[in-house]
Write a structure and sequence with these properties.
single chain; mainly alpha; 3 helices; 0% strand; elongated
Length: 122
């Protein structure tokens, strides 16, 4: 190999580089979503919808934690199938949408408005 051509990382090196931060991101966002759903009444969801979403996030969160433990315990020898990652990603997209919509509805509540805005009501 020429000294001017960088070597390509092995699949194992890529896995060890990319998977831990990806799993940490999933862990972070699922934790935030759990906190929101456990501590707030999401008014645009029915109680059943909120409970269902909460249970799906709890399951995915447990799966992420398990994957992190396995990856660490095997020194990065265990990967995760794309078939597992895609549903997590879709669930996070759903969580982000709910969170965005919730923040928008909270911004419209009068007691949540900044106090220093001029009052345009007549």
């Amino acid at each position: 190999m020429s000294p001017f051509q960088p070597s390509q990382p092995s699949e194992q090196d890529l896995l060890k580089t990319l998977l831990p931060p990806l799993l940490e991101d999933f862990h972070h966002w699922f934790t935030r979503s759990l906190n929101l759903l456990e501590n707030e009444k999401i008014t645009f969801l029915s109680a059943t919808q909120q409970a269902d979403l909460l249970e799906r996030i709890k399951l995915a969160h447990r799966e992420v934690v398990t994957a992190q433990m396995l990856f660490t315990a095997t020194n990065g020898e265990v990967g995760i199938a794309t078939a597992i990652l895609i549903p997590w990603h879709r669930l996070l997209g759903e969580c982000w949408q709910i969170s965005r919509q919730w923040r928008q509805t909270q911004a419209l509540i009068p007691e949540n408005l900044p106090k220093n805005l001029p009052n345009y009501q007549q």
